[in-house]
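example protein:
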Amino acid sequence: MSLPFHTFGPETNLLHGGQEPDPATGSRAVPIYQTTSYVFNDTEHAQNLFSLAEPGNIYSRIGNPTVDVFEQRIALLEDGAAAVATASGMSAITMAILNVAKAGDDIVTSTNLYGGTYNLFVHTLPRYGINVHFVEGEDPESFAKAITPHTKAIFAETIGNPSLNILDIEAIADVAHDHHIPFIIDNTFATPYVCRPIDWGADIVVHSATKWIGGHGTAIGGVVVDSGRFNWNHEKFPGFTEPDESYNGIRFGVDAGPAAFAIKLRVQLLRDIGACLSPQNAFLLLQGLETLHLRVKTHANQALEIAEYLNQHEGVEWVNYPGLKDHPTHTLAEKYFHYGHGSIVVFGIKGGRDAGRKLIDQSTIWSHVANVGDAKSLIIHPASTTHQQLSHENLSKSGVTEELVRLSVGLESVEDLIQDLDNAIYHANGFRKSYGKSKHAAEPVLSSSLDRSNGELRKRVIGIVCASSLLVEQHKLERLGFDVVSFSNMEELQRETNVNWDIVYVEEADEEILNIAKEVKPTLLWSRKPINHEDAAIISGVSLYEAVVNIRSGKDLSTSLVSV
């Protein structure tokens, strides 16, 4: 799929990369090849496949046509030579390390890591003889000093966790290459649409596709991308230079070409460990990829707006987001990122651990889960959940302080997210901040003629009082779905004691009407003519029908309504 002198943009590759319409059926969507094995053309064909003399499908643990489209698409997005999909992000990281390191070797990494990766490096890899040297922060010199003759790779994350510091990819890549070791980078938090580490010298890129690539919290998966740039034909990597007897003595660093790393990982580790991606999950992840470019922009824009809001909130001690200009690595984010600065926001709530717990319990739209990268907004207070067993001192060492709250900003209305967050903060520590884009008080009542509050469903009821001039609006409001009842005076309406009035609509609210309204207690008292009164439940200054039309047309009511 190419045109002369033209390179497809990432948006096109997200939808078409790695796929042509199915030759047998013409299917435009990627088919799900739900099969374990594949028929060989003849014995010679089978022999060639098993000896790696020609490409093709043998068994879905090693390769599957649906998974292959996903792999090719990711490789295109990252500008890699090849990609290998895995059962999860953690299996992608594990196999990327095992592909270069063995017992007696070590790797160098930063302390700013995803918790699962940290556990792998601290507890699991050392059990198998692979040591991990941790570097505080992301300073290139610190990485260089930690490298030993046994170091086989540098590993880091594009966006550190929980610091959200942006890695200086180019500088760390230079350190790795000066010592002839590969630079492996986890690009999950940035996504291949926002950042392409290979462009800046990274050799291997890994993703937890579970997160933003899938984007909907429906499938677990991972992927390893081989840049095709690193020279594996070096004595430092005997696994690439010595013959593999299980494949007729092939030497991957000599015989396999630019995609040597990916081929070795697939035919050795995926074959033997078996952490392969299922065709069904590959299909779901492909569905996510098709809208990645649309989602990440909204994620990032909303994350920035929420970060800026929290930065001005008295109930918040600090805010950490790379998109804020005072973030210590904002300049690096501007260098390496396109289309925003990610969708993770970390902040400290005033009141510490207790306030953090209360904040979580009071959140309604934000889902309390330990995941990130969903279309839905997610929230967690690590000190009372994932890190609850740690002492105050150990919390500080991990970077997870008692007041820290992590947000994964989703795709809901940003106004709703901020209102929900502000309400939760208020119940947690008593501080509240007004939001400039808050909905007008009339919007919840007028946006729908149905009331769904308290788990019930009913039509909203409007009482029109006194003025015959308002009756011309009655039929219009009824056509919009409201129950409308007209009265000649407020006393008549007052006698209807069994009705919950959503709106009482009058031409002008005089003192008598105001007094009766206090007894009737409508949700809104609507006066067509402007009035001056201290009662905050009164809306005045425009026709009720016009207000409903404005709301349903998506217009801002604050410019046409007066709340008094």
User: Anything to note?
Assistant: The two ends are 62 Å apart (CA to CA). The domain at 443-563 is CATH 3.40.50 (Rossmann fold). The CA atoms of residues 87 and 277 lie 4 Å apart.
